Model the fold of this input.
Amino acid sequence: MTRLKASAGFFLAFATAAFAAPAALAEDVNIYSYRQPELIAPLLEAFEAETGINTNVLFLDTGLVERVKAEGANSPVDVILTVDIGRLTEAREADVTQPVESAIINDHIPAQFRDPDGNWFALTKRGRVVYASKDRIGQIPITYEELADPKWKGAICIRDGQHPYNIALIASMIAHHGTEYTEEWLEGLKANLARRPNGNDRSQAKAIMSGECDLALGNTYYVGLMMTNDKEPEQKEWAAAIDILFPNADDRGTHVNVSGMAMTKHAPHPENALKLMEFLASPEAQEIYAEQVFEYPVMPGAEASEIVQSFGDIHPDDLPLIEIADHRREASELVDKVGFNNGP
Done:
């Protein structure tokens, strides 16, 4: 497998290879990924072993859709791998994807987790859950709505309200409750913050361990990453300090976001791209991927890793992701309207 780093010379090198030796690249599939190469390497190695098709990966931190759009018809990329429903729909709205019709993919990925027109498909899901102090809170039933209750005043930490993970959650609240309710809820949540929104999800767990707050919103997969972080072992202490609470577990279910895939509009190897996408939707790949990234497979019956299973059962909100995506802009406007990032 060829793993390529993001660099100014990447496109030139890739294009030169493609035009110099088209026959050699006939059994290639080219990928742009927001997921770090080491996280998807086992998946792609399994695909190569099964099909003999070589995978070439460019990892980008930002600007993936903008890059594909700028490259236009000359783009070398076949498949986009990304995270967050916002980024998947962004690719569709930028007209850099194409519809894919596959009975194999549709059989494995429920309709809730795919674009109705086949422009993108989810692969794994993660819950946007509540991290709770193990010592001060413990395992309790909780809802997203309850986070605006004054009883939690000064108790909650959260990352930037405009982060895509939070925007998706706020958008789901709009879908369930409407704009007026969600604005009041955001005001209440803001009033309950222990500090101005900052940091990433892991730093919220650190803040709970230090006593800065008792509750935080975070994604499930970060807990697995902290639990297994040998390079920064202090993160294991952050994970050990928290319990995972699944909001709304007894009613509509916990909000989930996804990682996913899409075929690009000008994919130079569409047949190989389809083979890769069908492989990624398979039970084997679902379990490999979910274990690597500490997420839940979207395919019913596919098992999560032992670490993820230790978090407890997740009852996902059955709201279609496309409906959440439709409220993203409104959610972002509400964050600014209530001055959420100014803190309490």
Q: What stands out?
A: Confidence is low (pLDDT under 50) at residues 1-25.
